[in-house]
Write a structure and sequence with these properties.
The complex is a heterodimer of chains A (646) and B (368). Chain A is of the alpha/beta class. Chain A is 35% helix and 18% strand. Chain A folds into 4 domains: 4-222, Pyruvate-ferredoxin Oxidoreductase, domain 3, CATH 3.40.920.10; 233-420, 3-Layer(aba) Sandwich (Rossmann fold), CATH 3.40.50.970; 432-505, no CATH class; 520-619, Rossmann fold. Chain A contains 20 helices and 22 strands. In chain A, helix 1 (23-37) crosses helix 7 (180-189) and helix 7 (180-189) runs antiparallel to helix 8. The longest helix of chain A has 20 residues, at 194-213. Chain A is globular and about 90 Å long. Chain B has helices at 11-15, 46-61, 96-106, 118-124, 126-135, 180-186, 200-212, 239-245, 301-307, 331-346, 351-356, and strands at 68-72, 87-90, 111-117, 140-145, 191-196, 217-222, 246-249, 256-257, 263-267, 274-278, 318-325, 361-363. The mean pLDDT of chain B is 94. Classes of the chains: A alpha/beta (646), B alpha/beta (368). Strand 9 of chain A pairs antiparallel with strand 12 (361-363) of chain B. Bound molecules: iron/sulfur cluster (SF4).
Chain lengths: 646, 368
């Protein structure tokens, strides 16, 4: 049967099913195929905190969205063009996000009265017209899978578990994905269990052939590879990139990497990843609690290691006192906060940016800590190295603010040339053999480098530099305990000045303002980079002008930021919190920054942000050029023209 | 889930707490170990005696002074590192074992000591203490037990006797105290000992054994706080008193104490524990029926029974010495061994290969 082939420039697919249905794996595999094919891509896993919520319920729905295109894209996409729903709950939980006219593929197997009721349906949505506005493909994936592999002799239950590979096969056929990566993956993964390997491979082929041979699927789609800078690429998640960045920082500084961590979502993958790389001299210590995790890291730093702790918001709360100690000791320490929805236990598996003020101020006393935020999954690699550079150079704890979206989301990464990575000099204090122990000046552990204001880092084991450090106020220079009022004033200011000095070595802020005459500036930080960038592109396509600045260093803020903000008539700050950066820039620069906030536990959608920006522009009197349709700004004929946006 | 058998690390290392720490032939003295800081404990505080003992005994270890580190928490005793001219860190309340763990894992060339108190180790830092003990990190922990909070001016502590009247318990404390030795044994400790601040010889002997032990050594030191809990250890002060109230534990010897060895410890068949008995005479038991102390017994049951001879209330009797000293691979040796094995079998990691991973593709050159 010959199939029609349609060209598309981009597609958003969402796989949704029960937590036990293997949707994350299915999405991962589709992503690997897509990366191998050469599309640009971005992913958004979304799963419940419960490992196995009651089967078939809304609470147990897990999904994975992948956006891929023939051009560069910035986000996992707003709304799926294709929803794959493995049960009634998955359909019900995701339907509201699916625009009318989109394709929905449903596994009809579980649409009996019991499972419909579990999902909260009183009528069968496959029958009652609910799905009429969609391009619906009802397929009994489960039965087809079980039938296809019945010769393998698996129980019905075990056989039906391969249905996700059927779905993957079908979608891989629809979008012309290469199959080798998946076949190779299944062979390796189930190498020790040939029956399961064969079951999954057969299910995958059966899904592919189902698309190829049945009339239900008449169209295949082609999305050409994206134009990307020449080089070698891989796909990577933010947590993996962060782990590799830490290993790279260890190599580039010559300091052995020591991770002290306690399991916590969504940071545990960093602990898992680093524990695999002992051949890089990496020590991972699974501590008895969050406090011990950071304590052990600080102890390792005292001994000359690159001490790191990874955690999420609740863990940072527990570590606060130790971070304060590190401020006082003036030792390098990296605290990686993979933010999640808060307060308290909050939304462990969902994303948020609500720890910014905790990172800035969540300690007793004046305890300034540099804060660095990666802006994309790939950027977690560079942010880790940058944070290590600051920590080591300035002898200070540094907080890295990633989040659940960056941690689990993935995108293609152009592999850096290892030879080009920055070198970090720990510049340990060494004993001066010429100094006479009796007559020479005693070692001054709190003397300061005139440029960086950093103190010397003298490791235990270095002769002649024996000294004691601690949490009590230090005397300037000698580091002895001091309760002197003037000394305390001096030391509080010195620690602040040292952190402020980090800004001296930062590059100029990049202002994305193509014509240089925009009146509206959108300011962001962290993982909102993609959605803000995509929103800005949409607005610019309307012929409107908007400038974008994304800050990576939140403490200290870049020296030029105040002047940049002052150049714009209006500054709007979208954040996944209630306006934390907006509060900081208002306080620091006295600019009337307008906050736009959302705390859904999910990233912003580009369309929503574009609309917010348009509203601000309307308010400023900027209107789109006259020849565009106000309802569909910038789109001449949306139904037929490819929508080259992110 | 699977478990693998971990080989016992290199035998020399695994049996010597100071193996790997550089030594020196230069004679050392107490003065070198004394820092220029003025000691600020109250007059008569038991901490002075312990400091003097430590300053006196460290030179005997023959280690390079720069390879010794003392880490402490918060409390009177935690000022200890400031007074020793070694490397030191006065950290935060309760966290010293955690901090020292990170240091000990990454620096096998250091002799790492923890100084803590009853409030620091058993209250706010209880979690870190028990986990350090079960992991058996190569640390020596000195737990100064004065049975009171001194630095915060006299509240009851987790080792204060029930009913204790303090500033925070005017009607008497209703808490049941910890027995630090029992707690440590329950936490799988491999070296547990107790000594007293006023017996320099015993203190030094126990500290030497603790330093020589590879793994976490816990030494509880009865330490008098004359300001807020004076007399807590009165039953042990003075020669005659100590003789009848302190039960010395010596490996391989029958447990015997009191004037002329008139008392001893025997198994108590009724409870399965041990009890204090009279020796010889009309109503005493035969000397040969006394319990012979075996600190190296694999099973900690008898050591635990001995720890229970300590009064929970006002102290009138307590065993001192080494309750338990057994060999078990240390956490830090095993951790370093895994790293060495990984580097040994697959070589030092190649960063470029790590970053590339298994699935890469090329853009701008023929696809491969
Ligand atoms: S309060 Fe007690 S324990 Fe603290 S220094 Fe004074 S006497 Fe020693």
């Amino acid at each position: 049967m010959s199939k029609q082939v349609k060209q598309l420039d981009r597609v958003i697919i969402r796989f949704a099913g029960d937590s036990g249905d293997g949707m994350q794996l299915t999405g991962d595999r589709f992503t690997a195929e897509t990366a191998a094919f050469g599309n640009d891509l971005s992913t958004l896993p979304n799963f419940p905190a419960e490992i196995r919520a009651p089967q078939g319920t809304m609470a147990g729905v897990s999904s994975f969205q992948v956006h891929f295109a023939d051009h560069d894209i910035l986000t996992p996409g707003d709304a799926p063009d294709v929803l794959v729903a493995m049960n009634p709950a998955a359909l019900r939980a995701n339907l509201k996000d699916v625009p009318r006219g989109s394709t929905i593929i449903v596994d009809t197997h579980d649409f009996g009265a019991r499972n419909l009721a579990k999902a909260g349906y009183t009528e069968d949505p496959l029958e009652d017209g609910t799905l009429d506005p969609y391009n619906l493909h009802p397929v009994d994936l489960t039965t087809l899978t079980v039938e296809a592999i019945k010769e393998l002799g698996l129980s019905r239950k075990d056989a039906s578990r391969a249905k996700n590979m059927f779905a993957l096969g079908l979608l891989s056929w629809m979008y012309g994905r290469p199959t080798e990566p998946t076949l190779e993956f299944l062979s390796t993964r189930f190498g020790a269990k040939p029956v399961l390997r064969d079951a999954n491979i057969t299910a995958f082929h059966t899904g592919w052939n189902y698309g190829e041979t049945t009339e239900a699927f008449a169209v295949r789609y082609e999305i050409k590879p994206a134009e990307m800078a020449a080089g070698r690429y891989r796909n990577i998640t933010g947590n993996a990139a962060l782990s590799y960045g830490l290993i790279a920082a260890s190599q580039q500084s010559g300091l052995p990497l020591f991770l002290g961590a306690y399991p916590i979502t969504p940071a545990s993958e960093v602990l898992h990843e680093l524990s695999k790389h002992k051949s890089f001299g990496v020590t991972t210590f699974q501590a008895e609690d969050e406090i011990a995790g950071v304590g052990a890291a600080l102890g390792a730093s005292f001994g000359g290691a690159l001490g790191v702790t990874t955690t999420s918001g609740p863990g940072v709360s527990l570590k606060s006192e130790t971070i304060g100690l590190a401020v006082m000791l003036e030792l390098p320490l990296l605290v990686c906060d993979i933010q999640r929805g808060g307060p308290s236990t909050g939304l462990p598996t969902k994303t948020e940016q609500s720890d910014l003020l905790q990172a800035m101020f969540g300690r007793n006393g004046e305890a300034p800590v540099p804060v660095v935020a990666p802006q994309s999954p790939v950027d977690c690699f560079d942010a880790a190295i940058e944070a290590a550079r600051i920590a080591i150079t300035y002898r200070t704890p540094v907080i890295v603010l990633s989040d659940g979206y960056l941690a689990n989301g993935s995108e293609p990464w152009q592999l850096p040339d290892v030879a080009d990575l920055p070198v970090i000099d720990p510049a340990f204090e060494v004993s001066d053999p010429s100094a006479n122990a009796d007559t020479g000046e005693p070692f001054q552990p709190y003397a300061r480098d005139p440029e960086t204001l950093a103190r010397p880092w003298a490791l235990p084991g270095t002769p002649g530099l024996m000294h004691r450090i601690g949490g009590l106020e230090k005397k300037d220079g000698t580091g002895e305990i001091s309760y002197d009022p003037d000394n305390h004033d001096l030391m509080v200011r010195a620690r602040q000045a040292k952190v402020d000095a980090v800004a001296d070595a930062l590059p100029d802020t990049i202002v994305d303002d193509p014509d240089g005459d925009a009146r509206l500036l959108v300011l962001g930080w962290g993982s909102t980079y993609g959605p803000i960038g995509a929103g800005v592109r949409r607005v610019r396509r309307d012929g409107l002008k908007v400038a974008q600045v994304h800050v990576r260093h939140l403490n200290p803020l870049p020296r030029d930021l105040g002047d940049i903000l002052a150049r714009y008539e209006r500054v709007v700050v979208p954040e996944m919190n209630l306006g934390q950066l907006a509060m900081l820039v208002r306080a620091k620069y006295l600019v009337d920054a307008r906050s736009h906030t959302q705390v859904h536990g999910l990233p912003f959608k580009a369309a929503g942000l574009a609309e917010v920006l348009r509203e601000h522009l309307r308010d400023l009197g900027d209107v789109p050029p006259a020849n565009t349709d106000p309802e569909q700004p910038g789109r001449k004929s949306p139904a037929t023209t490819p929508d080259v946006i992110a | 889930m699977t478990a693998v058998d971990l080989p016992f690390p290199d035998t020399d290392l695994s049996r010597d707490g100071l193996a790997g720490v550089p030594t020196t032939d230069e004679p050392q003295n107490r003065k070198e170990y004394t820092s220029d800081q003025e000691v600020r404990w109250c007059p008569g505080c038991g901490d002075y005696a312990v400091l003097a003992a430590v300053q006196g005994f460290l030179p005997d270890l023959g280690l390079k002074r720069e390879n010794i580190v003392f880490v402490s928490g918060i409390g009177c005793s935690s000022r200890f590192p400031y007074y020793l001219d070694t490397y030191g860190m006065h950290s935060i309340h309760g966290r010293a074992p955690a901090i020292a763990t990170g240091l000990a894992i990454t620096r096998p060339d250091l002799s790492t000591w923890v100084v803590t108190g009853d409030g620091d180790a058993l209250s706010i830092g209880g979690n870190h203490l028990i986990h350090a003990l079960r992991r058996n990190v190569n640390l020596t922990i000195l737990l100064f037990n004065n049975r009171i909070y001194g630095l915060t001016k006299g509240q009851y502590s987790p080792t204060s006797e029930t009913g204790k009247v303090t500033k925070s318990t005017p009607a008497g404390s209703v808490d049941t105290p910890f027995n630090p030795v029992s707690l440590a044994l329950g936490a799988e400790a491999t070296f547990v000992a107790r000594t007293v601040d006023n017996d320099r010889k015993h203190l030094t002997a126990v500290l030497s054994a603790a330093a020589a032990h590879r793994g976490t050594s816990l030494v509880e030191i009865f330490q008098n706080c004359p300001i807020f809990n004076d007399g807590a250890f009165e039953a042990f002060k003075g020669k005659g008193a100590a003789e009848s109230a302190l039960i010395p534990l010596e490996h391989g010897h029958a447990i015997r104490f009191g004037p002329d060895g008139s008392r001893g410890v025997a198994r108590d068949t009724a409870t399965g524990g041990v009890r204090v008995v009279g020796v010889g005479g009309d109503d005493g038991i035969d000397e040969s029926d006394l319990l012979v102390h075996d600190a190296h017994a694999d099973d900690p049951t008898t050591a635990f029974a001995l720890s229970r001879l300590t009064d929970a209330g006002v102290l009138t009797q307590a065993p001192i010495g080494i309750f338990r000293q057994v060999e078990r691979p240390t956490y830090d040796d095993l951790t370093r061994q895994q790293i060495d094995t990984a580097t040994g079998t697959s070589g030092r990691g190649d960063l470029a290969a790590l970053l590339a991973g298994k699935d890469t593709w090329a853009v701008g050159e023929p696809r491969g």
